[in-house]
Amino acid sequence: MLPVEHNDPINAKILAISEDKIEGFVREPFEEIANRSGLGVEVVMARIAAMLRARTIRRVRQTLLATNLAQGALVAWKVPEDKIDAAFEWMFQHDPFSGHVVLRSTDTVSAGSDYKLWTTVKVPQGFSFEAHCELLAKKVGAERFRIMPAKGIFTLGVGHVRRKTIEPGSKADQPAKMIPVQFVNLSDAEWSVLLALKREFTPEEIKLSPWVARANEAGISAEELYRVAKDLTARKIIGRFSTFLEHVKPSAGGVRVTRFNALFHWAVPHGREIETGGEVGRHHILTHCYWREAGPEFKNVNIMAVAHGTDKQLLLDHKAAIDRHLRSCDIPVSYTNVFWGGRSEIKPSEISPHIYRDWLSEQLKS
After folding, report:
1. How confident is the model at residue 311 (pLDDT cuts 50, 70, 90)?
2. How far apart (Å, rounded) are the C-alpha atoms in residues 303 and 332?
């Protein structure tokens, strides 16, 4: 039996690369992980497959910059207390366009703390995001919802293993550059390749030249798949090749990757969002950093970031270090808060217009 915990020394070396260091499309992703981790490719493939079977890794897949393919937003839902668990289950089980489904709380009663259900939602182009949320609100009995689309992305990655040893205040030499959100239209042939690329890998698919079978699935040659994938990477549609750890629940052996999920909020003056996002997003602890407009319910918060860890106070120390850095940059913050993640389920949001059309038809019947 191979070790399957994330903190095994060999697994940790693999995960330090495979979580979020393989940018864009790579023909031989497992060879790339092996080369960067200094391990043999057979060792890498065997360990990733074993961790996937054990659910230490919850998925292996080519990620997409889906914000450029479908309307996306973080949505906060105000749901009556007696309906919130059922609402959580419905979003997770029955809406393939909801990705992260999280119950969040604050340490004190504060702006927006009655919005306890938070989801990430993608709605394919050609359909109404507002109508989708109205439909979901009726299904789960939500009283209100707040849609917060990303206007810019400063940080987007995981890397939980390598973030375990990061000290508060650790940051890049330069501010993070903002990736603007802009829609890209794809042909039917490109959608066919994209759907083949993004499907999760089974343990049996963890092998050399893994894309050949995916090309067959799409009905094209491997060289044609490589050509299209390279073009999609250049157009900022392909994200990373990633192994995603199960970081919310303990492993089969009872080991947790993280215990706390913190959503940091800052409200800064209008016109300084890009500057602030760059200064916040350069901090190494963050897995996500966005410019989002949260509105008056959340005291006009416009910069949000996410950090994970096993120690709540340490995460607050990281937040305090970011706050000090913003003060040193003379960036005024009129309001800040932390929303803590509790119960959580994560799945990739579906983005296919064809799948959405079929799903919507079924929902309107029921």
Report:
1. confident
2. 13
